[in-house]
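During the reporting period the student researcher (J.K.) took over the structure-prediction task from the postdoctoral fellow and processed the backlog of single-chain submissions. One of the processed entries is reproduced below for the supervisory committee.
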Amino acid sequence: MVLLLTILLTNKENGINRFTPLQKFKSANSQYTTSDTSVVPFQKKSLGVRSAIYPKPALVIGSYDKEGKPNIMTAAWIGICNSDPLSISVSMRPATYSYGNVTESKAFTVNIPSSELIKYVDYAGRLSGKDVDKFKETGLTPVKSEFVNAPYIKEFPIVIECELTEYHDLGSHRQFIGKVIDVKADKAILDASDRVDVNLLEPLIYADGNYYETGRWIAKTGESLNKIDGKPFVPDYSRRYANEVLEVIHNRKSVRHFTDQPVSKEQIEVLLRAGMAAPTAANRQPWVFYVVTKRETLDALGEQLPYAKMLSQVKTAIVVCGDMEKAGNLIDKGYWVQDCAAATENILLAAESMGLGAVWTASYPYDDRTRVVSQELNLPEEHIPLNVIPVGYPTGEDVPKNKWKKENIIWQ
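J.K. obtained the following structure tokens:
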């Protein structure tokens, strides 16, 4: 940790936002060498007995006391412990109010928060139900569960109703085992197949006294198996960034290969909000965005636009247009291209940050392509299409390119 903080502070003082490589490794007869550092790969240091599983979930347990008063507590020592019947284990100290509640009522709920609910999660974990009415103090709404004798939190996006089946006294904690009776989730975080979209959920995680949001999507299960080659593993710190924005920028790529998984309306709205956050000359915002979901329109555009064949793979595309009525007078009217280009880049970066794939396929300034898009979408004359952006889930075939070239820089 001291080494990490030293590097971060040094980089900050030198105006560097990116992690510099901690080591440069060479493989020679399975021996690794380092340059200018005493840190050796895989050299472990004993830390003693610690709860070093990172990260832990940050979840909230709901229960009733003997008088039927609803209570909540935050738990990190919790997880799925069995698949048939599907069961969840949560460990509590006898000193907690919820310990007695769950023991008595034989039921509890697991309430999964989004990151914007952090203040309630922290509050529920730092005060005891013996001393305060947490629902009253937080303004959260208790709802009686449909199937078990426990309350859940209305404002939390996912709630799991559990029936206590057994418990084990382990020492400092009692481990409660609850059989999952029902799971409820807000419709706003579900995709077309009623699966939870983790990007929309934004669940909280916990580690060493701090809360974090979940990271970016990196792979589907099983798809990395073909990368196992039996060769010695060498850590690569060169593509790790202290700044998440820089990581998204450097990992953005033009995605031309998509799965058949649909993108939700809520995800598209997130992309469009990012687009509209772009800089714009004189704040004219001379843009308008068409969201295309009709299969026949996507196919027609893919057939006629020479570099947009991948439209046949996706279920959604965004068409970025310049609105000439907003563009201004003849002197600065041309700024619509820069403004819409900036909005497009924001959309592409937002897609990368959400684990989605997207690619800029040009319409303007090609008259034939502009004509195709205008005709297929029946655009009004004042709306000029700059590009068409297919949006979907990437297969993983497309990778970012290293475009760094020192010869493109001229210092004066």
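The committee noted the following: The longest strand covers residues 158-169.
J.K. will present the remaining backlog at the next meeting.
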